[in-house]
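Supplementary Methods. Inverse-folding protocol.

Structures were first reduced to a C-alpha cell string of length 789. This string, shown here, constituted the complete conditioning input.
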C-alpha cells in the first residue's frame, strides 16, 4: 500500500535524506519519497510486513516527527491550519525574542570598543566577572527560544546523520561552552589576583557570536520559509477554487451540505455565480460555464442537458441541476492537485546529484572545521583564534542553498505550468523536456481540429443513395471521419438502414451487410486488398488529397460505388506552434494513419520537416523508436488514446486537449486545452526552470567553494583575511534566501508565443455576453466578437 505522512523537524536536504534513509532500510518498504518543501513523505510498503506506526517510529528514531497525512478530499476546509503560516508565526516570535536580547548583548560586548557610553559597573578588569556574566544571562533567552537547533542537531549527530542544524548547534554551542569556561577562568584570575589571565579571557567571550549566529540564521530561515510558502501558492490557489459547500436535492428538498458529504448519484443544484462543487452530468437546465481556471479557455462554454461539468468551474448565467459522478478525491480538481503535488515532490536527476553532494557535505564540513582548528593550534596560534576559525567554518557552510536549489525551482515551475493549463507529472519530465530535439505530432486532433466535415460526394448510384449506404455503414463505427458522414446524412434528412456482420478493419476501414449485401468503406489500401477497381475515381481522389481532404471509397462486392471527401481543418494556432518549435531548433515530424497525399498537403501548408503517413497505431511506437535510435530526444504530442503506445515510448509524452481526463497514464504532460501552442509553452517553461536550477546550483557551489576556505583562514597568512563567525552566519542565511528568491523569479515567466486572440478581444467578448429575457421566458444571448479576419 501507499501512504502519505507529514514530517516535522526537517530544515535542509540532509534532513530529508536522513528521513529517507531511516525509512528505506526497513524491511517491507518498496519506495520512499520525501518532499522537503511540503514537509511530507510518501511511502510504498508491504502492509503484511509492517504498518504506518513502524514508519512513524523509524522517523522518530532518526530525530524527526511524523504522522499520517490527514486527507479531507484535497479541498481546504475552513478550520484547516496552514502549516507554513504556523511555522512563519513561530519563527517571527523567535526572531523578535532573539533581537530583543541580542541588541543589548551586542551593545554591552561591543559598545566600549566603539566609544559608546556603557555602565561603569561593567567597565574595567575588576568588573570583568559582572561583564561576562551579564552577557551570559542575555544569551540564555536567545539559546532557549532557538533550542530546536540543539534538539534536532545533536539528535541527528547522535544517529550519525548530521544535518545543517548539527553545524549550527556545534558552532554556536562551542561559543557558548567556551564563554562559560571563560567565566570560570575570570573568576579564578580575580580570586588569585592574576589580572593578566582576567584580561586575556574578558576580551575573548563568544556569547555575542553564539547569540548572533542563532538570531541571523533564524531570520534567514524566516525569509526562506516565507519565500518557500509562495512556491506552493499554485496548489493553494487550486485548492481555494473548490466551494466548501454544495446544494443537493434530498427527499425532494434542497439542502446545503459540506462538499465532503456529496456522494455519487446526488442531484446537485447550481445557481448563477456559484461554483460547481463536483464533476457530473447536467440533467436539467442550461448555462454558460467559465472553465478558465482549469482549462484556460477564456470564453465561457455553453452547457446543456447531457453535457459534463467540472468541479471548481463557475456558473455564469443560467440555473441547472446535475448528477454527481466524481466526488472527493476523484474530481478533476483533486486529480489536478494530486498531479501538481506529485510533480513538486518528485526529484529530477539534477536534484539527485545535489542530494548526493549534500549527504557527504555536513560530515565533510565538520571534518574541515576540526582540521582547521588543529592546524591553527599547531601553527602556534591561541586556542581562541583556532576555535573562532572552527566556528566560522561550521556556520558559513550552507547545505541549505544546495538542497533548495532544485526543489524550489521545480515547485514554482510545475505550479506555473498548472496556471497555464499544463500539468507536468514529474520533475524528471520537466528536466528531460528542455533537451528534446525532435517533436513528433499526431495529425488528427493535434494539428487539426479533429472534427472533420464532408466536403464532396461523387457517386455512380446517386448522391442520396450513396449517403444512405455510407451513413448506415459508418453509424456503428467509432472513427472520427464516420461522424462527419453520419452528421451530413442527418442534415440532409437521409435515413439509416440496419447493418449486419459489421467489422472494423484496423488501419483500413469497415465492412458490413445491408439488406443481405456486403459493402466496404475505407481507404485505397482496403480497396486494393479486396481487388476493387477504383481507376475511375483515382484522379479525382488524388485531387481531393492534394487539397488536404481525405477520400473515403465505398464499394459493394463487385464494384466501386463512389467517393466521399472529408476534410479536417487545421487549428488556427498549429502553424504558429510548428514555426515556434522550428525557431527553437527542434525538428518537427508528423505521424498519421491518413494517406500520403493528404499528409503531404498538410506538410506543405504548415512547412513540417517530415511526414510519416499511413501508419497503424502500433507502428507509431516503432517510428518513435527509430527516431530515438538516431540519438534524438523525442517528445510525442497526441490525443492520448490511440497514441498511447507512442506516448509511453517517447522521452516525453504530451497528451493534448485531455480536458477532464487529466490522469492519462501514458503521458508525462497533460495539456488541458486543445492548443498545440501549449506544448511550445511547456518546452519554454522547462528551459526556464532548468536555467534557474543551474543558476541556483552555481551560486550554491560558488558560495560554499569561496566561503569555506575564507572561514578556514586559508587567506589569513598571505592577505590577513579572517572571517568572524557572526559574518559567517549572516552570509550563510543570505545564500539560502538568495537561492529561494531567484527561484521565485520563475513566477514572472510569460510564454513567448501566445494564441493570436489578444487578451483585449477575449475581454471584450466576455464583457459582451449579455443575457436578454425574451417574452416566452427563454434567454437570448448577444456575443460581440472582435478580431475576426
Amino acid at each position: 500500500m501507499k501512504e502519505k505522512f507529514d514530517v516535522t523537524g526537517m530544515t535542509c536536504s540532509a534532513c530529508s535524506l536522513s528521513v529517507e534513509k531511516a525509512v528505506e532500510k526497513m524491511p517491507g518498504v518498496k519506495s520512499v519519497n520525501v518532499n522537503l518543501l511540503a514537509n511530507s513523505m510518501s511511502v510504498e510498503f508491504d502492509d503484511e510486513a509492517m504498518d504506518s506506526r513502524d514508519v512513524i517510529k523509524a522517523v522518530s528514531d532518526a530525530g524527526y516527527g511524523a504522522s499520517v497525512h490527514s486527507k479531507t478530499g484535497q479541498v481546504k476546509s475552513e478550520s484547516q491550519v496552514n502549516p507554513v503560516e504556523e511555522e512563519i508565526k513561530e519563527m517571527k516570535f523567535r526572531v523578535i525574542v532573539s533581537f530583543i536580547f541580542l541588541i543589548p548583548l551586542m551593545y554591552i560586548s561591543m559598545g566600549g570598543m566603539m566609544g559608546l557610553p556603557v555602565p561603569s559597573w561593567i567597565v574595567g578588569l575588576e568588573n570583568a566577572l559582572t561583564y561576562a556574566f551579564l552577557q551570559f544571562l542575555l544569551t540564555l533567552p536567545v539559546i532557549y527560544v532557538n533550542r530546536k537547533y540543539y534538539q534536532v542537531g545533536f539528535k541527528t549527530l547522535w544517529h550519525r546523520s548530521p544535518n545543517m542544524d548539527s553545524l549550527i548547534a556545534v558552532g554556536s554551542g562551542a561559543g557558548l561552552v567556551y564563554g562559560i569556561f571563560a567565566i570560570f577562568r575570570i573568576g579564578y584570575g580575580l580570586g588569585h589576583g592574576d589580572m593578566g589571565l582576567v584580561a586575556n579571557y574578558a576580551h575573548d567571550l563568544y556569547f555575542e557570536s553564539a547569540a548572533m549566529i542563532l538570531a541571523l540564521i533564524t531570520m534567514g530561515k524566516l525569509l526562506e520559509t516565507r519565500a518557500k510558502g509562495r512556491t506552493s501558492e499554485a496548489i493553494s490557489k487550486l485548492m481555494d477554487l473548490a466551494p466548501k459547500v454544495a446544494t443537493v436535492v434530498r427527499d425532494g428538498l434542497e439542502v446545503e451540505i459540506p462538499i465532503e458529504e456529496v456522494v455519487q448519484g446526488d442531484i446537485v443544484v447550481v445557481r448563477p455565480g456559484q461554483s460547481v462543487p463536483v464533476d457530473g452530468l447536467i440533467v436539467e437546465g442550461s448555462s454558460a460555464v467559465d472553465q478558465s481556471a482549469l482549462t484556460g479557455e477564456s470564453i465561457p462554454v455553453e452547457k446543456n442537458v447531457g453535457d459534463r461539468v467540472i468541479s471548481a468551474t463557475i456558473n455564469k448565467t443560467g440555473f441547472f441541476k446535475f448528477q454527481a459522478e466524481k466526488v472527493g478525491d476523484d474530481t478533476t480538481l483533486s486529480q489536478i492537485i494530486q498531479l501538481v503535488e506529485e510533480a513538486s515532490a518528485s526529484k529530477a536527476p539534477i536534484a539527485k546529484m545535489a542530494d548526493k553532494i549534500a549527504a557527504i557535505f555536513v560530515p565533510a564540513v565538520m571534518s574541515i572545521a576540526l582540521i582547521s582548528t588543529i592546524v591553527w593550534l599547531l601553527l602556534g596560534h591561541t586556542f581562541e583564534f583556532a576555535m573562532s576559525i572552527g566556528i566560522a567554518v561550521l556556520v558559513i557552510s550552507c547545505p541549505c542553498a544546495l538542497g533548495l536549489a532544485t526543489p524550489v525551482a521545480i515547485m514554482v515551475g510545475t505550479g506555473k505550468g498548472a496556471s497555464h493549463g499544463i500539468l507536468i507529472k514529474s520533475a524528471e519530465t520537466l528536466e528531460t523536456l528542455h533537451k528534446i530535439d525532435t517533436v513528433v505530432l499526431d495529425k488528427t486532433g493535434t494539428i487539426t481540429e479533429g472534427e472533420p466535415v464532408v466536403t464532396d460526394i461523387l457517386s455512380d448510384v446517386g448522391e442520396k443513395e450513396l449517403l444512405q449506404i455510407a451513413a448506415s455503414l459508418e453509424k456503428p463505427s467509432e472513427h472520427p471521419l464516420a461522424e462527419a458522414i453520419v452528421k451530413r446524412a442527418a442534415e440532409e434528412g437521409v435515413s439509416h438502414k440496419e447493418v449486419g456482420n459489421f467489422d472494423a478493419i484496423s488501419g483500413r476501414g469497415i465492412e458490413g451487410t445491408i439488406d443481405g449485401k456486403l459493402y466496404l468503406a475505407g481507404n485505397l489500401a482496403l480497396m486494393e486488398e479486396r481487388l476493387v477497381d477504383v481507376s475511375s475515381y483515382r484522379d479525382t481522389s488524388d485531387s481531393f488529397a492534394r487539397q488536404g481532404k481525405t477520400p473515403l471509397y465505398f464499394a459493394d462486392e463487385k464494384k466501386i460505388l463512389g467517393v466521399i471527401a472529408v476534410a479536417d481543418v487545421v487549428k488556427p494556432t498549429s502553424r504558429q506552434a510548428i514555426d515556434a518549435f522550428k525557431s527553437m531548433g527542434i525538428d518537427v515530424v508528423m505521424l498519421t494513419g491518413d494517406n500520403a497525399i493528404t499528409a503531404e498537403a498538410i506538410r506543405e501548408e504548415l512547412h513540417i520537416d517530415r511526414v510519416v503517413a499511413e501508419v497503424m497505431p502500433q507502428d507509431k511506437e516503432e517510428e518513435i523508436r527509430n527516431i530515438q535510435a538516431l540519438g534524438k530526444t523525442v517528445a510525442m504530442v497526441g490525443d492520448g488514446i490511440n497514441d498511447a503506445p507512442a506516448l509511453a515510448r517517447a522521452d516525453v509524452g504530451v497528451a493534448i486537449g485531455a480536458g477532464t481526463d487529466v490522469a492519462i497514464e501514458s503521458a508525462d504532460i497533460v495539456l488541458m486545452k486543445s492548443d498545440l501552442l501549449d506544448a511550445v509553452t511547456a518546452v519554454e517553461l522547462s528551459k526556464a526552470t532548468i536555467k534557474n536550477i543551474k543558476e541556483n546550483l552555481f551560486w550554491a557551489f560558488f558560495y560554499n567553494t569561496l566561503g569555506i576556505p575564507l572561514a578556514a583562514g586559508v587567506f589569513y597568512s598571505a592577505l590577513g583575511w579572517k572571517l568572524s563567525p557572526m559574518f559567517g552566519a549572516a552570509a550563510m542565511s543570505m545564500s539560502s534566501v538568495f537561492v529561494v528568491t531567484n527561484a521565485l523569479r520563475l513566477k514572472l515567466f510569460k510564454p513567448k508565443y501566445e494564441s493570436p486572440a489578444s487578451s483585449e478581444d477575449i475581454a471584450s467578448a466576455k464583457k459582451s455576453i449579455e443575457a436578454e429575457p425574451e417574452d416566452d421566458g427563454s434567454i437570448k444571448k448577444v456575443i460581440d466578437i472582435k478580431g475576426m479576419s
